[in-house]
# Entry
Amino acid sequence: MSTGTKLTGADIVLKALRDQGVDTIFGYPGGAVLPIYDALFQQNDIRHILVRHEQAAVHAAEGYARSTGKVGVVLVTSGPGATNAVTGLVDALMDNIPIVCLSGQVPTHLIGNDAFQECDTTGITRPATKHNYLVKDVNNLARTLHEAFYVAKHGRPGPVVVDIPKDVQFATGTYRSPGESQPKSYRPQVKPDLNRVEEAVELIASAKRPIFYVGGGVINAGPVASQLLTQFVRMTGYPCTTTLMGLGAFPASDPQWLGMLGMHGTYEANLAMHGCDVMITIGARFDDRVTGKLSAFSPGSKKIHVDIDPSNINKNVQVDIPIVGDAAYVLEDMIRIWKARAKRADQAALKLWWDQIAVWRARDCLRYEKTDQVIKPQYALERLRAALKGRDDVFISTEVGQHQMWAAQFLPFDKPNRWLTSGGLGTMGYGLPAAIGAQIGNPGALCIDVAGEASIQMNIQEMSTALQYRLPVKVFILNNQWMGMVRQWQELLHGSRYSNSYSEALPDFVKLADAFGGVGLRASRVSEVDDVIREMIETPRAVIVDMCVDPKENCFPMIPGGKAHNEILLGPADQPAQATPEEGMVLV
Amino acid sequence: MSPHDTIRRHTISILVDNEPGVLARVIGLFSGRGYNIESLTVAEVNEAETLSRITIVTSGTPMIVEQIKAQLDRLVPVHRVKDLTLDGPFIEREMALVKVAGTGEKRVEALRIADIFKARVLDATISSFVFEITGSGEDLNRFIDLMRQLGLVDISRTGAVAMSRGPAGL
# Structure
């Protein structure tokens, strides 16, 4: 259809979605979006996935977006529909996931009158989104929707809300195509300043104890960025660590990978960060979970920081060479300049550095007590890893807590977009809807939500969604009967006073799976673990696995709050050198 | 104290789309991230392109001020952010309306000081004046302090507006 076509607001919404290449949306109907739902009913191009709670709609769209690289689209009604979506929006904001969330609103003449199911959606979601819009004129609807997609995916990606009053959905207006709808002011810089890149390459080549510190920005820059990163890291021969969000940006099977860094990162990654002389930061943001005590963070290093968002630069840590740009462009330039100038790492220094890293690695920081008396959560994940070996079609999502950190430590990611976890906001209840979104985006793939028995209850209703759409998602619960991470902090920091962290009155997860129409499996003995994992993978339906693990196990290594990288604790016997200082206690 | 820790006052000009919510975005950014606002003024400056200019006076360490500017710049309706304090010489002006009530010698003195400060009388009664004064923030402070002793009743200040010197525009 050409420019200037007259359509109703609801039809404009659907046409704009189609023109943006959208074929799937996640949502929940209600009074203020009925016209859009009616238009959805009368077409076949866009598939609507009905969730059971609007928060899950956003998480599912996040799982879809992260696993496919497309924009995730959400449709919710006004008032509670919009407020329920807020947690998902902030989650997407913190983890930079491109989401467009359409919300219904009461008719324009009722806005501000405390109408039924009215809330100030743009007011509430202003700090919860990258940007938001209230469309009061149907003639601005198409342009606004296209701009929303542009903003969601360009620069540092994020969630965008478009609030559409019901009368605007009914009204007739002019459709504008994406090409006619460029935003006026938002033009993020993607190509770097070449002088800075040259400076960075010289510094990288002169390093004696270098490290690549890589975050989710590389994954957001697309699979090509991960390939370029891998190529560049291998060209230099330098060690590479990734953040929680960056898992998969560099192959976990590569010997140059030191594992994840940060609070529950590996000993070798954290000590290499502490002791390096040149830090090559790409698409990471020096989050407090990564840096530990800021004043003692990597004290002797020159720091290069590549980020698409200038506000990330010098936010927490002062860097020496800031480079604003898209990770893929920057890496391409780095490789080209490295080759053109025939750069080569200082091999003697690099050997000494790798020797030192080998000493740290030999501490085997992820070791745990092997026993046949009780299922250790790490053991369950090691067996899951073994069962997944050689498969290229596995997507792992998680909830939040100990199980999430163990999954990050024990499951290997050789490719980007395979690891879906709530890193920034730390949203319990993220994993199941995210797995559903990943499964929708990747039919036939194996989508597993590694969960805890507490987190999974926060969005357990989405089992019903999984069953409705015949999605064979797997919920792999490491059931230790505790909010494990809360209990771990209470044990370490609050004198083992376990205030409200015991998972009392748990449901029977096997029966629960059955009640939803799925398959429930349980392993309570070490000897049952492999069989349960095999059955889970082979069952072509939604499965809940109740893996009854050691209730006392804690997650190590751990850098306690307010401590530096070199004060990392390796296990329960490893007592902190001194009590956690008060300034560390107040950190979350 | 290193220069990194020195807290300094900065005057920042921001060109934004004049659309609903844009001021809330700017103010929300400051409150949400714990930045300080000393004053803020806003008005439409380009009707054809519906652009408004915001002048914010804030204070912070160099690292904080750099953050403030970067955070402002990434707001979608923001076109341009300029730190006048760092980008060369600039002019900063503020206007105030100052109401003073009194009789006799105090009333005469108020008028005499207003004359020295080049404040204009906008309203007069037998027992009061409303002065309009324009100048730097410090000029206004000094004038108001003097008026305090002469029967100050009410103050309304605009907050600073500012512009760089020389031919270049924002």
